[in-house]
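Hi C.,

You asked whether I'd gotten around to modeling the 201-residue construct. I have! Everything is below, sequence then structure, no commentary in between.
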Amino acid sequence: MAAKILSEAESSKGDLWVFGYGSLMWRPGFEFIEQVPARLIGEHRALCVYSFDHRGTPEKPGLVLGLDRGGACRGIAFRVMAKQRKYTVEYLRSREQTTNVYREVMRSVWLENEARQRVSALAYVVDRGHVQYAGRLSLTEQLRHVLQGHGRSGNNRDYVLSTVASIEKQGFRDQQLHQLAAMLHDDSALHLHPPLKTEDK
């Protein structure tokens, strides 16, 4: 199934808002003039995308975040100047759409600033019909994929822990991701401090 791409009419007016909920929160990679904590209603953040590129390979897939149906998601809305709009969209497509697992859509997000205004923001929503859609995996399955995942953007563990650190910096928690982060910390402790072997008498 081809990924949805916004038409010129949908993506060419005035300043552009971009909603970040994963790595875009801590590594946006584009110029912006404002960033505001924001909430998107109707979809939630989930480790529901097998990564064959940035954080894994087809042989050893990692797991990355997508916006999946239902609930709500807190993240960051970035405002991009109108003159940077075209370049920013092209950059995001080259970064997010390497395997077309996301649908590029405009979503209403509520800015958590004094005005509490609603804006229309560019967001990347998982395509449930794509081969890389992982669905709802158990924490054990998530841990296995994250530990094995390594792609051109680095290892999967760093991706999860950086996202959790960004969430904490904004003053909230994501229960599933925080549970996984705790398991990743425990796992690294086991690798750093293997049990001592007793010598044979």
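If it helps when you're writing up: The chain has five helices and seven strands.

Thanks,
B.
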